[in-house]
Amino acid sequence: MIEKIKLSVFAGLFSFFTIGILSYLTYKTDYGIFLVASFGSTMVILYGYPDSPFAQPKNIFFGHLLTSLVGVIFVAFISLPLFLTLPLAVGLGVALMILLNVPHPPAGGNPIIVILGSVSFEYLLNPIMVGSIIIIVFGIILNRLILKRKYPKNNLFD
User: Fold this and answer.
1) Phi and psi of 23, rounded to 5°?
2) How far is CA 77 from the centre of its chain?
3) Closest Cα partner for 148 from 5, 2, 1, 10?
4) Does residue 135 contact residue 18 with C-beta atoms inside 8 Å?
5) Which whole number is the average pLDDT over 52-58?
6) How far is the C-alpha of 134 from the C-alpha of 8, rounded, in Å?
7) What share of the chain is helix, strand, coil (3-state, %, to 5)?
8) Residue 158 has pLDDT above 70, yes or no
9) Banded model confidence at residue 1, pLDDT cuts 50, 70, 90
10) Dist. CA 49–CA 52, nearest whole Å
């Protein structure tokens, strides 16, 4: 029970810290946007269930990147009504994550965020890639250095 309490306290603190850094970078600097709503769900998996395959760095990074790329491609090249674009993009993003062995459930919502926001390809660099790297680094700090767990389970991108 003590271990569960310790994990939940650290998960909450690191979620606060990580989203706080991303919020600060977004709202208090001129570097651009670093927040994506789905990053909040990533905190639950990464900090609360770090042994899950969904919490591994390759899944976090490539899951977010892949599904956001699908959304951006739909925004840029596919002109369909929104009620068709959204489910097609989410379905394709989910299928590709599973096919390429990088499933990360929070990333399943990225095509919706991207399409509703009508973002450009720049969005893939910032917030998706840079934000994901920041999240992964904090995940390594918490799990490996503070909680002394083996994280990631394999090499960073295995």
Assistant:
1) -65, -45
2) 24
3) 10
4) yes
5) 96
6) 21
7) 75, 0, 25
8) no
9) confident
10) 6
31/40 Cα distance (integer angstroms): 20
The pLDDT score that the predictor gives to residue 154 is: 77
DSSP 50: T
pTM > 0.85: yes
Q: Give residue 25's Cα distance to chain centre.
A: 16
**111-120 core/surface letters (b: 16 or more CB in 10 A; e: else):** bbbbbeeebe
User: What's the Cα-to-Cα distance from 3 to each of 8, 17, 28, 107, 153, rounded to whole Å?
Assistant: 9, 21, 36, 29, 19
Amino acid residing at 134: I
User: pLDDT digit string (tens) for 124-143?
Assistant: 999 999 999 999 999 999 99
**pLDDT given at position 156:** 58
CA-closest candidate to residue 115, choices 75, 153, 55: 75
Instruction: State both tokens at 23.
Output: 């919020």
The C-alpha atoms of residue 136 and residue 126 are separated, in whole angstroms, by 15
Any idea where the domains of the chain sit in the sequence?
2-146
The CA angle 34-93-80, to the nearest 5 degrees, is 95
Question: Is residue 12 scored above 80 in pLDDT?
Answer: yes
Q: Give the integer Cα–Cα distance in Å for 157 and 24.
A: 28
Q: How far apart are the first and last CA of the chain?
A: 32
